[in-house]
Design goal:
The chain has 274 residues and is of the alpha+beta class. It has helices at residues 19-25, 124-128, 135-141, 182-194, 234-273, and strands spanning 40-44, 61-65, 68-72, 74-90, 95-99, 143-156, 159-160, 171-178, 202-213, 216-228.
Length: 274
């Protein structure tokens, strides 16, 4: 059964929901596989320096804040919810050329800004049948799937770009875990699900490990569950609603572009077929 867009209608008190229902809603269930304005964004820094020439710590976590980007070798995340989305990045434009809505399950319809689905991404069997040297294969590999993990981030021993110590504790953020980070993040949350441990009541330590493939050096996240949160609070309720509203607003903007693109394509098809 195909699901529609992510459900964002939460009860006034999330604590009244069952753990199983919450896992499905927040993208932690077994069948579950941007722009987030106002939220800090966590990532792993791969740059040796910034645009001003300041030396940056490669392989450290970076977090965008209202006061600028800060860095730390290790971080802690308390995930509240996870969504999935697809996108295509245009290196020449320095922007996404196509994006989809965010949804908590791979069973969802991933409407995209081109008026199609999943940025044109084929299913696994069709993808594997393509010749590896074909233009279609290259195009398909440009479509990336991301896990968008919303939660509270703490950076341990955080510093700004000048090396000044700063405090970064329980900051509402989003982490787009994709590429080399997709599987480690997925495996960690899958393990919690098997243990019936809600991710929103779990703190997870984040570190990175240096990897090399050919001449390419990159860094991959390692996730280690640390501890459990005793109680779900009213503040947690409020924050979960805020995360849900963020996704809802994002999806509405994508759907407007989807509908507009569909209209353009239908108009073009009408002219061509007349």
């Amino acid at each position: 059964m195909t699901e529609t867009l992510m459900e964002t209608n939460l009860p006034d008190k999330i604590s009244t929901m069952s753990v199983d229902d919450m896992m499905k809603l927040t993208g932690q269930s077994a069948d579950a596989p941007t722009t987030s304005k106002g939220l800090s964004r966590l990532s792993i820094n791969h740059s040796a320096e910034d645009e001003e020439g300041n030396a940056l710590p490669r392989g450290h976590f970076s977090l965008s804040t209202d006061d600028g980007i800060i860095y730390a070798e290790k971080a802690v995340i308390r995930p509240f919810m996870r969504t999935y989305s697809y996108s295509v990045w245009d290196n020449e434009e320095g922007a996404f050329s196509v994006q989809t809505v965010q949804a908590p399950s791979f069973n969802s319809e991933f409407y995209d800004t081109d008026g199609g689905l999943k940025c044109g991404r084929l299913n696994t069997s069709d993808l594997e049948s393509l010749p590896k040297d074909s233009p279609e294969w290259v195009l398909q590999k440009s479509v990336k799937c991301s896990q968008n993990i919303y939660g509270l981030i703490t950076l341990e021993g955080a510093k700004d770009k000048k090396g000044k110590a700063v405090e970064a504790k329980d900051i509402p953020s989003v982490w787009y875990a994709k590429g080399a980070n997709f599987v480690p993040a997925s495996d960690c949350l899958k393990s919690l699900h098997k243990q019936k441990q809600p991710m929103w009541l779990t703190t997870i330590g984040l570190s990175s490990v240096r990897k090399k493939k050919g001449g390419n050096i990159y860094f991959q996240a390692e996730l280690t569950p640390r501890g459990q949160i005793a109680d779900w609070t009213g503040e947690d309720d409020t924050l979960m609603h805020q995360f849900m509203e963020t996704v809802k607003g994002y999806n509405e903007s994508i759907m407007k572009r989807h509908s507009s693109a569909r209209g353009d394509k239908e108009g073009f098809d009408t002219v061509v077929n007349e």
